């Protein structure tokens, strides 16, 4: 009996240590916004810093769209994977240094396929270097009023310095939606096929929630599952941002739930607009690796499943089971030969000993 008592006590202590009472470190930022007037319909920790993961690629797309509009590049501009681009982690494209595609195809690969190597190649093509492109990303963030964001790479791979907030990502998503409606096809595509290799989008909302128009998902062990999503019904557009969900199921179901509630009129506008929300610029993003990919994962996921059971076996789902037809984009690449290494000249050759 005594052994059972202490075992139970340890279990309770573990649960409290991991999950509650609700702590700032357990926050998973949520934001629901009416796009037309940017009225905030619902918000939780919307200004809390978070690792953006691949939602970073929304800014990569925005900067690229601006460059196209300014005439610096076009959708036909060749994008060549450099050695640096080809070395990016977590590759899904199957491409190699020298692989080449049009900028239009590259945008499909980056936005739908979330390819990290192609994102780097796009940055180098548009701005000449990763460093110059990152500067353009941060310049754009300042112009858009993204006061809680800092970008250090174009693909969202982990870097402690890279951060954003749900508020800022909503601003970015709305800016893309309003300023570049001609490019919505990039965000509505569910898969790309690169030289016969299929790369699926991780955004199940595209095919399983009526009216979703994109935009981008993201995942790192340090961030959990993020999504910036846009849906449209009856001429009304709603933006939902979810950051730090434990699983793709939780992320998709929670986003679908907020969309459902917003379109049903169950989320009433408050007294704040999106730009009026404050960012917390003093804190750093929480590192979720222990909970997402470490020793706490099983217990943390069990707790989150209990809190958000939608879509689990025997539970109601906010997603359609039938699924809409997928939009797939075909990409064919070609090889751009790398320039030969310069030969040593007499000026650089070592002098012979006399």
Please provide a brief summary of the model.
The chain is an alpha+beta fold.
**Measured distance between first and last alpha carbons:** 92 Å
Apparent shape = globular
Helix content: 25-40%
Q: What's the CATH H-level homologous superfamily?
A: DD-peptidase/beta-lactamase superfamily
Strand content: 15-25%
Main sheet: strands, sense, barrel: 5 strands, antiparallel
Mean pLDDT: 90
Strand numbers in spatial order across the main sheet: 2-1-9-8-7
Low-confidence stretches: 1-25, 346-354
Q: Determine the CATH topology.
A: Beta-lactamase
Count of DSSP strands? 11
**Secondary-structure-derived class:** alpha+beta
> What CATH architecture would you give?
3-Layer(aba) Sandwich
Please count the helical segments: 12
Backbone CA Rg: 23 Å
Instruction: Name the helix and strand elements from N-terminus to C-terminus, one letter apiece.
Output: HEEHEHEHHHHHEEHEEEHHHEE
What's the CATH class, please? Alpha Beta
Oligomer: single chain
The total tally of domains equals 1
